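Dear Dr. H.,

I hope your travels went smoothly. While you were away I took the liberty of generating a structure for the chain from your last submission, since the lab meeting agenda had it listed for discussion. I wanted you to have the full record in hand beforehand rather than looking at slides cold. The sequence, exactly as received, is reproduced here:
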Amino acid sequence: MELTERTHLATATKPIATKPTATAPGAPTRSTGTKDADGMAVASFILGLLGLLVLNVFLGPIAIALASVALWRGTARRGRAFLGLGLGIADLLVLVAFMQFDSTVSWNF
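The corresponding predicted structure, in token form, is as follows:
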């Protein structure tokens, strides 16, 4: 009988693991959507800046799209997203200017 009592007591006193369901009041919460939007804002800035030098026909529209989505999702890095948007538009303007200058569909040095 002693063995069954120990087994019964061991299972009865075992703590039940529970997942926390709520955060503490006043604790800052940040969803993954905002983190993704911040990453998109930075990516649009980098791609827009890189697009001024190479592959602006591809990188310009990608920078514009990423900046627009980041702003729509409510990024904390709004300035970076606006810079990415401006650089993406500048990429396309540089492409158009060089296409007019060279009278071709693409440009090279």
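Two observations you may find useful: The CA atoms of residues 38 and 76 lie 6 Å apart. The mean pLDDT is 79.

With kind regards,
E. W.
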